[in-house]
Amino acid sequence: MKDITKYQGIIPAFYACYDKNGEISLSAVRELTDYMIEKKVKGVYVGGSSGECIYLSVPERKQILETVIDQAKGKLTVIAHVGCNSTRDSAELAKHAESVGADAIASIPPIYFKLPEYAIAKYWNDMSAAAPNTDFVIYNIPQLAGVALTMPLFREMIKNPNVIAVKNSSMPVQDIQMFKDEGTRGGRDFVVFNGPDEQLISGLVMGADGGIGGTYGVMPELYVKMFDLVKAGGDLELAKKIQYDADNIIYAMCSTKGNMYATIKAILKKRCGLELGGVRAPLYDLIPEDMPIVDKCAAMIDEAIAKYC
Fold it and tell me: Is 125 helix (H, G, I), strand (E, B) or coil?
């Protein structure tokens, strides 16, 4: 039997950390890892969209993962996103993730070229084979990857005993129910993560075991509170109010000219003193006119945490 309890909870997506020259800052990676531990989240998802993975080199991604695992010292579940544009690089990252002790590896489907489903399955299974003793998480994000996880492809993938979970970032919450129902058929242990941050409580009610999200790290207290309320069978009305407030913060963060992750990093600097740098081009960094929005968002987070946590 698989130990799925380590995946049941709030797992923030880990942000890329840069120094003043735009290079990876391992000291900032360590500080951000400590911050996540302090906030009592279940784990971290390293090297995904929030980690700006498609703009980082394979050696940079290895360095970041090694540093997170070394700093976490077993206090966090660590899921390593290893998807790259080539199977060769993906398999290299998968092998590395297993060698340094990641709890699971994950991957989006191949992007750019439209591939048949048997080629997508081979892409995922090849990287899983490179980490044969490590759990595998399928990342379904059709709005960015350009391809959706269909039920035939899903059924093919769960023939692989290492496939333990789906991170489902499609918008219909019905998809969570479909993957959960099929994944657990026959008594199999299987995890579904809610992906869209704006509908965490809906996903949890529909059967998600936890959530992985890009805005969790800037206001983890709110998401942990939502998770606890829903999973404990608590006050769903209160959970809904927290979700609404979190969504309004997300909408405000997305209103800057700079990329949302640049906004998040500026908020973390203002509220928590974390120096995580900007974002890597072609992602667009903040401009001076964005700073009042950063201040507004920081105040909204402070107010929500004081109200609910």
Answer: helix
Q: What is the rounded distance in angstroms from the CA atom of residue 38 to the CA atom of residue 36?
A: 5
What is the model's pTM?
0.97
219: which DSSP letter?
A: S
Q: At 130, which amino acid appears?
A: A
DSSP track, 93-125: HHHHHHHHT-SEEEEPPP-SS---HHHHHHHHH
Which residue, chain included where needed, has tokens 């105040």?
299
Tell me, yes or no, if 167 is annotated catalytic: yes
- For the chain of 309 residues, list the mean pLDDT of each consecutive stretch of 10: 91 98 98 98 97 97 98 98 97 98 97 94 98 98 88 97 96 92 94 97 96 98 98 91 98 98 98 98 97 98 98
209 token code pair: 């075991």
Report helix angle 260-272 to 236-253, nearest 10: 110
User: CB–CB of 127/94 below 8 Å?
Assistant: yes
- Pseudo-torsion of CA 50, 249, 171, 143, nearest 10°? -40
Sign of CA dihedral 145, 148, 153, 154: positive
As a whole number of angstroms, the distance between CA 105 and CA 147 comes to 20
**Overall size of the chain counted in residues:** 309
Q: How far apart are the first and last CA of the chain?
A: 35
Q: Which of 42, 62, 167, 225 is catalytic?
A: 167
Cα 69 to the center of its chain, rounded Å: 16
pLDDT digits (tens, 9 = 90+) for 250-271: 999 999 999 999 999 999 999 9
- Tell me if residue 7 is catalytic: no
The amino acid sitting at 152 is P
* Catalytic hit among 139, 216, 223, 261: 139
The pLDDT tens digits of the residues spanning 25-76 come to 999 999 999 999 999 999 999 999 999 999 999 999 999 999 999 999 999 9
Q: How far apart are CA 236 and CA 226, in angstroms?
A: 9
Distance of CA 256 to the CA centre of its chain: 22
